[in-house]
């Protein structure tokens, strides 16, 4: 082992940096050893006034340090804090077991309770009751779950789902594999929405100025108010919704507007992409939107489009993009050039990451366009000229199979340029098609919102009905939406939570969760998807359809009747049979919005007129606002699963931050100091001023962040989100402007004396000192397919003193293709849902006590100042055949099964934690406290009855979803056959939109997993330890442009 | 100096020294046996139920098949407790005015379930599945005893892990032909050792190593 480590150190030489744009790939240098252990006079002083980290950067810039794959800046720089941290498994438990107690007192109590606990086994079990149905519903067999198709509405495209129902309560979200928009993948939002359904803090009753009223009194009052409005055609009536995709809801609003012809309907959400809307209006003359066909795209240029982020609209893109890069599937790999203005999953997974300031994206796009022959010749910064030339050359060489994508946050000009480039490259109709928008009535949302606020300020609005969204929180600060709202006489808010907006409204009607009501929606490709309820409303929730029906005097209509009546009037679903089929499938077949018939004007003003750039004052920053990767625009702020889910690139939990590039942080002398627990980072708080408005934000140093750019995530800083979401992070909307909603210049950054502690997981469970990630290029792989094992011969199987155990029956195994994993974390949330994994809270995350059974390790590659990209590595239990955890358990609570799974027997575990101390993969999780909520009634409905709910003092870890294995085995045994390949799908595998995870029987040579494990790309983590993991990985392959590639890129 | 201790103390000392060992072993044995006793396991204790339902009458006298009420025993983990409607299939016609059956009729009237007391209550970390046992040749009476002779339902097996493992290690000794699964009166034939082996092969019973694995029952 030691020998191995030394060899590695010898080979990993200094990293050579590219010419400053960060698209170089790591190379092997001279045989200079790395210097983590070598004494460094600068870093040795550690935590003095000048932090070790700042100095570590300086050291790094001198090119002396740097690992090739690293998860945090401390790891990369090899700071003493980090070295000390990785030596311990649970770094902080000694000091803080339970705050008010001393360690000795704790041990006394522990000893006493252990002794007493011994007697508990002699006690009677409590009396339990059996409550059968009175009249059993036809399809229900107690203990057998049913699955129902539904869809989760989201802007940009719904998530088509199959939801598991255990005796009538929805317990788990799965993707709908037959739905053309996703082919079965899911995203973190839909996976976590099941927790939203059971959230005990959802609003539960109709209220008027905070007092509980009945639905009927609401209807009575609103009738009176609207009667007055009707007399003048609804001149003072305004309706504010989120963008409406549901055809039925659209029809209802149109009906309402017919009744009140002078009323106005506005739509707004934080994610509004007005740039794309304007560009479409300009170039096509009507609102259209592009749909991409990644399965046909060989060369892709992303202009700050994060199309690999976890969102229902991206699921098909993720699938097609990653499939194209799968060497086993036999496709020619695509090549992705990713322009990005902050570190994103798309940039991390790209072949060439091109970080730049938001203001430079348009110039870059014009440069590429000019080189392709679109638009006017453009002046481009010297730094990008080589890249622009090569990208344009590469795109031109793949006419009809290339693709240019503009990000939603980009201004109209960039969208127009992307449309024009695709047209000139012959991609229109092939890799990109244009369809009508999903929305019933697409609008420029911010213009509308501005108009509404102006009307409210001029007291033209007498009744405002807000259906969904949370505009008081989410409206940009310059509008002063809340202030204007107060001048409206009657304000009605329909929403899921009693939130910021409801506190400004007279009436608040609780919204029914999408799992509680009928509705309809469209997926990203326009496929009509039926929203089917799985459960009657838990509280007094009403759907949007019911509220609108009440407004237009149809209050006795149920959601089902409204939706059904609408579709009866439509051709495709007018028969009962076709409707039932659509409800059963979850969607209407072949209902995607038709493509084509739309041609882009090539002569738009957007193409030729360069947007004038304000010359920002020197020493100001550019700022870009982005939706939060896990809590989105704030609508999921009260969802503990999403709050605690480490964010794709930063691995922060429970907070947002202002992201600074390492170089900027050095200049501003900002520090992120790692605490003793590994999860707590003390960071500097900065004051950010944009256009006269100021907020304070913790400054997080993010490798991959372009210099001169500060990124702020929306969605945090909620004041009335609920116990989980309130007072987490800061509200970036408070400096957001309607003029520059996504990217702005002139941000002034001032340092403050304040410090703030953040919880992040990037250094947790660190497996230090090994070759954990293998990465090479497609070309190298073709030439040397066996490159991993030539480098590191696999450990012989007879190394153990004990004879090998023969696995004669099934031998379960898992293969994870790192080349497909985009780091979206849907697997982590799916696992949390399937296995009843608790949320622990920010303080516990800071102590490395998060409970996720599958974590996503995010490795940056290359230099700390400008990483080349990232590798995402999901790490569940390895289910080692020679498991180190098993031999050290004094009570036999973790033992091996005859089929090779490493079983965890909760009822035997006494919590010594020896197993996790001996686990080299750091995959075991310990319930230090009673993390599971055993008391909230609604949360009891959430639990998967097939998995034990763990209590305090119990070790737990990934079981390969043993409940799914056992159930599939029982079904096969009853039919006297073997389990078919693909019959057992683990929760993580089922959730993965990229098909990166494959489970199966490795004893069956024809199984998918056995074939993957036979691939030359297959390798085990820490193979030298002879643990023989059943979970193995397939290496990452990149497809860099040879013209931009410095030299050989093997990573050793 | 005179002897402090009497002669007999030698014997006492010997008995004490050697006896301690026996006392400790004996005490441990007593605790273990107590833990296995019916007092702890609740075996042979008839539970009070909201309706004095007699399996003896319905199975033994009337001759109902187990699956008339326990419909999911071949399909799911749980054998299934019959919904009130199943009771009312007959009792809307016979004994329809019996005061004993008032809770049943009340349940049917009000739509509120009858609250039965659970008799066979495994710990929550055990995931027992009826369907696989029934389809692999383990009969009802093997675990539940002569239900057809029980006026009030009671447990006859200890339902402790050693009892489960006893069969999982030697399934041959209880396997019966599939035609006899629901036969209450089936007794173990004298040549069970040989028949069991044959049946185990025929039913494709999993290897002992698999049946003994923790995750077979614990998740």
What does the secondary structure layout of this molecule look like, with pairings?
The complex is a heterodimer of chains A (1052) and B (219).
Chain A: H1 2-11, H2 41-44, H3 52-61, E1 69-70, H4 73-77, H5 80-86, H6 103-120, E2 129-130, E3 146-152, E4 159-166, E5 169-175, H7 188-197, E6 207-208, E7 211-212, H8 215-230, E8 237-241, H9 247-259, E9 264-267, H10 274-284, E10 289-292, E11 299-303, H11 315-324, E12 335-340, H12 345-349, E13 352-355, H13 358-372, H14 382-396, E14 402-406, H15 412-424, E15 432-435, H16 445-457, E16 463-467, H17 471-474, H18 481-485, E17 490-495, E18 507-510, E19 519-522, E20 528-531, H19 544-551, H20 559-568, H21 576-585, H22 605-608, E21 621-627, H23 640-644, E22 652-653, E23 658-660, H24 662-668, E24 672-674, E25 680-690, E26 693-701, E27 709-714, E28 743-760, E29 775-777, H25 778-783, H26 787-791, E30 812-817, H27 826-834, H28 842-846, E31 855-862, E32 867-875, H29 884-888, E33 894-896, E34 902-904, H30 914-917, E35 925-926, H31 937-942, E36 955-956, H32 962-974, H33 987-991, E37 997-1001, H34 1008-1013, E38 1018-1019, E39 1031-1034, E40 1036-1038
Helix pairs in contact in A: 7-27, 9-19, 9-20, 10-15, 13-14, 13-15
Chain B: H1 8-36, H2 38-41, H3 55-61, H4 66-69, H5 84-91, H6 102-110, E1 116-117, H7 130-135, H8 140-144, H9 161-169, H10 192-202, H11 208-212
């Amino acid at each position: 082992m030691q020998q191995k480590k030394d060899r590695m150190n010898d080979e990993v030489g200094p990293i050579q940096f590219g010419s400053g744009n960060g698209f170089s790939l790591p190379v092997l240098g001279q045989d200079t050893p790395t210097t983590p252990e070598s004494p460094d006079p600068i870093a040795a002083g550690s935590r003095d006034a000048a932090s070790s980290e700042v100095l570590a950067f300086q050291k790094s810039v001198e090119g002396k340090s740097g690992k090739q794959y690293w998860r945090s800046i401390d790891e990369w720089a090899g700071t003493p804090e980090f070295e000390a941290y990785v030596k311990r498994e649970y770094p902080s438990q000694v000091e803080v077991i339970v705050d008010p107690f001393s360690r000795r007192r704790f041990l006394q109590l522990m000893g006493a309770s252990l002794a007493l606990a011994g007697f508990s086994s002699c006690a009677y079990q409590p009396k339990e009751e059996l409550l059968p149905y009175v009249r059993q519903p036809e399809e229900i067999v107690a203990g057998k779950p049913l699955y129902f198709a539904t869809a989760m509405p989201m802007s940009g495209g719904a998530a088509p789902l199959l939801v598991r129902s255990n005796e009538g309560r929805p317990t788990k979200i799965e993707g709908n594999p037959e739905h053309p928009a996703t082919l079965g993948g899911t995203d973190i939002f839909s996976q976590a929405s099941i927790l939203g359904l059971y959230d005990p803090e959802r609003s539960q009753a109709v209220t008027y100025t905070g007092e509980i009223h009945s639905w009927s009194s609401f209807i009575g009052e609103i009738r009176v108010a609207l009667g007055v409005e009707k007399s003048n055609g609804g001149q003072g009536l305004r309706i504010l919704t989120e963008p409406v995709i549901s055809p039925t809801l659209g029809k209802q609003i149109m009906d309402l507007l017919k009744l009140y012809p002078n009323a106005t309907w506005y739509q707004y959400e934080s994610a509004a992409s007005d740039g794309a809307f304007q560009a479409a209006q300009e170039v096509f003359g009507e609102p259209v939107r592009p749909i991409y066909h990644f399965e046909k795209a060989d060369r892709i240029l992303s202009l700050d489009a994060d199309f690999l982020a976890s969102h229902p609209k991206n699921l098909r893109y993720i699938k097609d993009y990653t499939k194209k890069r799968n060497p086993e599937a036999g496709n020619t790999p695509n090549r992705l050039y990713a322009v990005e203005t902050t570190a994103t999953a798309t940039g991390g997974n790209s072949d060439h990451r091109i970080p730049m300031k938001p203001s430079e994206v348009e110039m870059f796009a014009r440069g590429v366009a000019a080189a392709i022959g679109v638009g006017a010749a453009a002046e481009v910064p010297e730094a990008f000229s080589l890249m622009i030339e090569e990208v344009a050359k590469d795109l031109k060489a793949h006419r009809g199979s290339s693709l240019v994508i503009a990000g939603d946050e980009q201004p109209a000009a960039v969208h127009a340029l992307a449309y024009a480039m695709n047209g000139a490259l012959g991609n229109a109709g092939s890799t990109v098609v244009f369809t009508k928008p999903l929305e019933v009535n697409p609008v420029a949302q911010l213009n509308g919102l501005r108009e509404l606020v102006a009307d409210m300020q001029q007291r033209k609005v007498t009744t405002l009905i807000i259906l969904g969204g949370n505009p008081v929180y989410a409206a940009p600060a310059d509008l002063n939406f809340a202030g204007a709202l107060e001048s409206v006489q009657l304000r009605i808010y329909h929403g899921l939570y009693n939130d910021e907006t409801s506190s400004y409204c007279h009436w608040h009607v609780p919204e029914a969760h999408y799992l509680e009501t009928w509705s309809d929606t469209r997926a990203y490709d326009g496929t009509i998807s039926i929203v089917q309820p799985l459960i009657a409303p838990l509280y007094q929730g009403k759907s949007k359809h019911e509220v609108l029906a009440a407004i237009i005097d149809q209050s006795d209509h149920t959601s089902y009747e409204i939706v059904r009546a609408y579709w009866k009037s439509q051709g495709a679903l007018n028969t009962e049979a076709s409707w039932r089929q659509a409800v059963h499938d979850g969607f209407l077949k072949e209902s995607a919005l038709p493509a084509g018939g739309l041609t882009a004007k090539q002569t738009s003003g957007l193409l030729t007129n360069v947007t004038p750039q304000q010359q920002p004052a020197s020493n100001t920053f550019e700022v870009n606002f982005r939706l939060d990767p896990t809590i989105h625009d704030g609508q999921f702020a009260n969802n503990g699963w999403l709050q605690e889910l480490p964010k794709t690139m930063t691995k922060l939990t429970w907070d947002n931050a202002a992201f600074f590039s390492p170089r900027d942080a050095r200049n501003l002398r900002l520090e992120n100091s790692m605490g003793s627990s590994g999860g707590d980072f003390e960071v500097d708080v900065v004051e950010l001023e944009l256009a006269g408005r100021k907020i304070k934000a913790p400054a997080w140093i993010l490798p991959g962040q372009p210099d001169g750019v500060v990124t702020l995530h929306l969605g945090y800083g909620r004041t009335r989100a609920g116990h989980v979401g309130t007072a987490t992070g800061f509200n970036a909307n408070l400096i957001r402007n309607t003029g520059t909603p996504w990217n702005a210049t002139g941000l002034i950054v001032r340092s403050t004396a304040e410090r703030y502690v953040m919880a992040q997981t990037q250094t947790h469970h660190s497996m230090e000192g090994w070759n954990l990630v293998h990465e090479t290029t497609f070309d190298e792989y073709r030439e040397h397919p066996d490159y991993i094992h030539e480098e590191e011969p696999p450990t012989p199987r007879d190394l153990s003193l004990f004879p090998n155990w023969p696995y004669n029956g099934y031998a379960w195994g898992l293969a994870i293709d790192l080349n497909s994993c985009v780091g979206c974390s849907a697997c982590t949330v799916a696992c949390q849902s399937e296995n009843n994994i608790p949320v622990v809270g920010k303080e516990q995350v800071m102590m490395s006590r998060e409970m996720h059974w599958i974590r996503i390790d995010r490795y940056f590659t290359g230099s700390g100042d400008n990483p080349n990209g990232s590798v995402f590595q999901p790490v569940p239990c390895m289910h080692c055949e020679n498991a180190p955890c098993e031999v050290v358990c004094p009570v036999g609570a973790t033992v091996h099964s005859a089929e090779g799974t490493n079983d965890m027997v909760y009822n035997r575990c006494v919590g010594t934690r020896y197993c996790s101390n001996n686990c080299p993969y750091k995959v075991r999780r310990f319930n230090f406290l009673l993390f599971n909520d055993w008391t909230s009634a609604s949360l009891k409905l959430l639990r998967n009855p097939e998995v034990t709910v763990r209590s305090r003092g119990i070790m737990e870890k990934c079981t390969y979803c043993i409940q799914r294995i056992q159930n599939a085995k029982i079904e096969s045994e009853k039919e006297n056959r073997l389990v078919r390949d693909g019959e057992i799908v683990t929760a993580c595998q089922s959730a993965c939109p990229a098909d990166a995870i494959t489970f199966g029987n490795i004893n069956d040579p024809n199984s998918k997993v056995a074939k993957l494990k036979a691939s030359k790309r297959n390798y085990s983590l820490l193979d030298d330890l002879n643990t023989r993991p059943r979970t193995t990985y397939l290496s990452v392959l990149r497809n860099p442009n040879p013209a931009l590639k410095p030299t050989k890129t093997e990573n050793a | 100096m005179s002897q402090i201790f009497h002669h007999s103390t030698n014997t006492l000392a010997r008995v004490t020294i050697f006896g301690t060992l026996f006392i400790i072993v004996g005490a441990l044995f007593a605790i273990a046996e107590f833990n296995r006793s019916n007092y702890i396991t609740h075996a042979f204790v008839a539970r009070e139920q909201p309706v004095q339902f007699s399996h003896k009458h319905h199975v033994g006298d009337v001759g109902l098949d187990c699956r008339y009420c326990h419909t999911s025993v071949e399909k799911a983990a749980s054998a299934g407790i019959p919904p009130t409607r199943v009771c009312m299939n007959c009792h809307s016609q016979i004994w329809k005015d019996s005061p004993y059956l008032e809770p049943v009729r009340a349940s049917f009237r009000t739509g509120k379930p009858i609250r039965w007391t659970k008799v066979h209550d495994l710990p929550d970390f055990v995931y027992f599945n009826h369907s696989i046992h029934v389809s692999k040749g383990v009969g009802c009476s093997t675990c539940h005893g002569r239900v057809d002779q029980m006026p009030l339902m009671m447990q006859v097996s200890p339902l402790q892990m050693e009892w489960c493992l006893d069969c999982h290690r030697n399934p041959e000794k209880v396997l019966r032909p599939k035609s006899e699964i629901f036969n209450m009166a089936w007794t173990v034939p004298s040549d069970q050792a040989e028949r069991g082996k044959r049946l185990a092969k025929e039913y494709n019973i999993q290897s002992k190593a698999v049946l003994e694995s923790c995750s077979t029952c614990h998740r």
